[in-house]
Design goal:
Helix 4 packs across helix 14, helix 5 crosses helix 14 and helix 6 crosses helix 12. The strands form three sheets. This protein has a five-stranded antiparallel β-sheet with strand order 6-7-8-10-9, with helices on one face. Strands 5-3-2-11 form a four-stranded antiparallel β-sheet. Strands 1-4 form a two-stranded antiparallel ribbon. By secondary structure, the protein is an alpha+beta fold. It contains 14 helices and eleven strands.
């Protein structure tokens, strides 16, 4: 089955689990044809389909509750319960029980694609080495979140920039189109449940964001509270596409809340699972960080080390992960991550050429 047929079958499956926004799906298909990096981000379902064939030995690695759709743009910042700025993985739509190697190889492969696209200036082998060193160190030290206060000033400088300026952020929010048609009652309840006060008057707009979840309903409620704007987003969730790739039947559990509650993490008190909606606060410093928003001067090796460390923070939420994962890691060849990531990068690039030639965009 090639990527075009796989995409059609996956979207048919997805449509049975959540209503799909057809114009957003068409936009997703177009962006998938633009370049390998957006194609990579948009096609985790395909990754899980080809992964056992491309990396059969790694597909048998110890399992953890993992991120699934992990890549270098799946990181951002939020404020914890103490109001401190925290950096880490910020999207768990595809959370599932899977081999720990899926997250590591996908993160490394995304770095390779980013290098090829000119978003990073590292050598691919150095990128893989930094990711794996960060992961190993986090496992050995039982993890630690990245709180951007008196420590981690280098990361704070990376995580704050002109694109996260309040004026820029709210101009972007104000430009979002109003929601047309009825708002699902469950979405309205989810949004209002996360408001800071009852009875706030708000307007509801549509937001088109991300790539993996593009096509899901995504709504933002914007209100004035004490003289300034606030925003709450509700995004419709579906079961992880890991289930689709595995051909799983029966009730399919959404594990978003489970992975948040188990990980080594300073939680965002404004991220809640409400039925099949994930609801969160949006603000200049509570959002994903895109590669294009990174400052020109940055230590990319240190950043990838931190990404590897944060990946282990998530895996440490699984019982006995340090013992079983650590033992498995010790048996692998020194360049295993580079070799596997390169193989998967090649598979993704081949799929991208097929998709682009198909004209399905």
């Amino acid at each position: 089955m090639n990527v075009v047929k796989a995409t059609h079958r996956f979207e048919e499956w997805l449509g049975r689990h959540t209503p799909l926004v057809k114009p957003d799906l068409r936009l997703k298909h177009k962006q998938m044809a633009d370049a390998v990096f957006p194609f990579f981000r948009a096609t985790f379902y395909r990754w899980m389909q080809v992964w056992p064939d491309v990396c059969p030995d790694l597909a048998k690695a110890p399992q953890v509750l993992g991120v699934g759709d992990l890549h270098v743009e799946n990181f951002g910042t939020w404020r914890d319960g103490e109001g401190r700025l925290v950096w880490g993985i910020n999207d768990f739509d595809e959370a599932a029980v899977l081999p720990y190697t899926v997250d590591l190889v996908r993160l490394a492969a995304s770095a390779m694609v980013a290098i090829s696209a000119g978003h990073l200036t590292l050598k691919p082998k150095d990128a893989c080495t930094s990711i794996l060193e960060g992961y190993r160190n986090s496992l050995a030290h039982h993890g630690r979140p990245f709180v951007l206060e008196e420590d981690n000033d280098w990361l704070r400088q990376i995580a704050t920039g002109v694109l996260r300026d309040p004026n820029h952020f709210w101009r972007k929010m104000d430009s979002l189109p109003p929601m047309r048609g009825p708002i699902p009652v469950s979405a309205r309840e989810a949004l209002e449940h996360l408001m800071p006060e009852h009875g706030l008057v708000y307007r509801t707009v549509r937001r088109v964001a991300g790539l993996g979840s593009l096509g899901h309903i995504r709504l933002v409620a914007i209100a004035q509270c004490h003289g300034a704007n606030i925003a709450r987003e509700a995004k419709a969730l579906a079961p992880s596409s890991v289930y689709w790739a595995q051909g799983a039947e029966g009730p399919l559990e959404i594990l978003y809340q489970a992975i948040l509650s188990r990980a080594v993490r300073c939680p965002d008190p404004f991220v809640r699972l409400h039925g099949h909606w994930i609801v969160r606060r949006l603000s200049p410093h509570c959002s994903r960080i895109e590669m294009s928003a990174l400052p020109a001067r940055r230590d990319e090796l240190q950043l990838l080390f931190a990404m590897g460390w944060e990946t282990a923070n998530i895996h440490l939420g699984s019982v006995d992960a340090p013992k079983h994962v650590g033992r498995h890691l010790s048996l692998l060849k020194p360049n295993w991550l580079f070799a596997a990531a390169k193989d998967m990068e090649n598979a993704v690039t081949s799929d991208w050429h097929t998709w682009k030639k198909s004209g399905d965009s």
